[in-house]
Amino acid sequence: MAEKKSGNRYAVVDLEATGTGSDAKIIQVGIVLVEDGQIIQTYEQNINPNEDLSPQIQLLTGISNKELRKAPGFGQVAEDIYRLIEDAIFVAHNVKFDGNLLAENLFFEGFDLHTPRVDTVELAQVFFPTLEKYSLSHLAQALDLELEQAHTAISDARATAQLLIKIQEKIASLPKETIGQILQLADYLLHESRMVIDEVYEAMSAYSSHHHQDVHGLMLKTIEPEKKGTGLANDFSENLIRLGLDQRQDQEVFAQVVKERLQDQDKQVHFIQAQAGIGKTYGYLLPILADTSQPLLVSVPSLVLQQQIMEKEGHQLAQTFGLSIQSVKSSRHYLKLESFWQSLQREDSNSLLNRCKMQILVWLCETETGDMDELKQKYRFPSYFAELQHDGSLSAQSVFSEWDFWRRLHSKAQASQLLLTNHAYLLHHLKDQAYLTQNRILVIDEAQKLLLTAEEFTNQSMSLQPLLQNLQRRKDKAENLLEQRLYESSFFELQQLLHNYQNCGTTEIVSKDLKQLQQNLQELANLDTGLADLKWLLDFYEHFWLEVDYLDGETIYNLRATQMELLDLAALLPKEKTFCISATLDISKKVNLADLLGFKEASMDILSSQKSQQQEIFLLADGPDLVELDLPDQAVFVVDSLEQVRSLNQPILVLFTSRALLGAVSEVLEERSLPHLAQYRDGSEMVVKKRFERGECQILLATGSFWEGVDFSSQSQILQLIPRLPFDNPRDPLVKKINHYLREKGKQPFFDFNLPVMLLKLKQAIGRTKRTDQQVSAVVILDKRSHNKRYSRQIRQFLKEHYQLQKTDTAGLVQTLAEFFAKHSL
């Protein structure tokens, strides 16, 4: 009988060193030998570098100078190490560092190491394409690797060996056709990493399992028939138990109100206000899904919240009750198979782009949705992924027609019991995708955000640079002097708007500044599309302003326009049973959201809220007036405050009202070498949220949707800093529009709307860090306007009514917070 051929032998190596620079010396070696998918031998050895370790390296590795003084020098063990790995493939997690350092040290001892090299970082990126990070610690958590003591050589080497075996198993689980396509691109992998793929490929069966389907050369995951569920019980508490959730009295009260309004025959539209943190999502989903066979559409304010609900509540409902649930968003989020197939037909020399192709080939064997947001690393090559975005159109003759993700999405969505979308998508597709709302109960979650979305929906925007270029071309081609002068005058008028902005900072445009431009366009005949659109914009809209965008380092000036009247949303929305849910519906005694949205006949339920004993608000009484400071001084004060409170060793969420201040604070933190996560700089909302929750950094700087749509429930204790109160910018077009609307009705915009809305936004922000009954949360408000304005008393009364409230000063802040957390740790 022929002897069974053994597979490759891999020497998985991890080194700990005195640093990461060119002068680093090895202090610890860990080697794990892997053959035929099994660990067959391990080796570990401390190395005396003949110098003391820095405190940072001692802390990182847990190795002391005393231990190393007893260890042999590298020369004493060099031959043992060389003999162990000389005939194996060298594997490491970031092989460049470990491979170069070990080869260099062996060379100076007379041993030439020329083994092939494999990098498990890149292989993990290819074969586990939906992970957010590929550090060994993150992979250990995601793939269940044993990593008992990170930054210990043998522990890291063993975890890397297990990772190598997981990668081999993952390759073997994929269709051979897919691995063949990956091998066509594998020469672009680092070093000789393709050897791992080659070895597994040779042993693979040509038979493709029923889990995958060959579609014009792409292997796609087979569409599995939906499993029938057990259905929901009529009892809310029983459904919670089946979901494995704790019962909460406030949530049950909210769910009962939803149930009663569902049966209300007199009114179709129901506004329900309930405090943050009671679990409103399950509070409306469970009674509606249990008490009616009518399908449900839920609209939320942001893509972040849409994804959050889909991954959490949506996943649990599908798993527990077998509900058919579909998330719908813009076509650009989905992969167009035709575009990807075409990109595979061409040769690209960029290694990163080819790695993206390999990742997508693997992902196509796993994804059921084609939603590219599942690929957390796509930001590394945005231009390639932009090329693959679905444009919403598909030829009926396309070979991918039947399997097109966008077409399948809408087919599944029409048949789903629960449909999840966002406010922007809903408003944009009310007319052309009637199935979204047809015969569906509608829930508008965070209904107050619908106003802002509607404003963006009704706004129009035109880029000035193309208009100026067009006018210049038309002037040069003008057939008579009058036409030439009209184009020249129009060019000058637009240039003047830019000049006013660039030199005077003027963003708002008064109507008289557009009169001449409007008159010129009326006199010109045969306008092309661009100028015709500009003419329509000037004729139809009433309020104009300039806005600046930055794209790939280029400054883009946009002319924005809106109507002064509020959009009548009630007239646009379907006449089905509708629930508007939020913690902020009843804005003030004189203004409520139902009025602003245009609903004349609607019920309004305001659920009472209770003060939590485990959350307290602290007002800083002696800080500077941040509104009066320039941006750099504001940033320094916020960072000084952060340096104080970080000694408490609690996770710290800092919520900003502006991206500019967030960026300025991040820069000062960088200058002071203070580790932190910053939204935009360190990833999208969901990415930085998850990294913060995993404890990668103590400090998270955030803005935007973090005020209302992102929850933090995993930390048992958390500290929240709010530098500035969330007043709306009085120059914001929507704020102006609402103020105009209220004045016409004889109301006071600031006290009847702007101040109450700020307080409700503040309330929602505070609710981000009190998501469970057990969670302990301290909120520090740095803004002095809670003390030194004529409306300060209203702010303090509002906070005192809803929360435990305490004043403190800079000197006593840390001690006060320490006592609060200590009291609730008992």
UniProtKB/TrEMBL annotation:
UniProt keyword annotations, A-Z: ATP-binding, Coiled coil, DNA replication, DNA-directed DNA polymerase, Exonuclease, Helicase, Hydrolase, Nuclease, Nucleotide-binding, Nucleotidyltransferase, Transferase
PROSITE patterns tied to this protein: HELICASE_ATP_BIND_2, HELICASE_CTER
Pfam families: Helicase_C_2, RNase_T
Entry GO terms, CC: cytosol
Residue ranges occupied by any Helicase ATP-binding domain in the UniProt entry: 237-498
This protein's record includes keyword Nucleotide-binding: yes
Coiled coil feature spans: 468-527
Family the UniProt entry places it in: Belongs to the helicase family. DinG subfamily. Type 2 sub-subfamily.
General function of this protein: 3'-5' exonuclease.
Protein name (database record): 3'-5' exonuclease DinG
Higher taxonomy: Bacteria, Bacillati, Bacillota, Bacilli, Lactobacillales
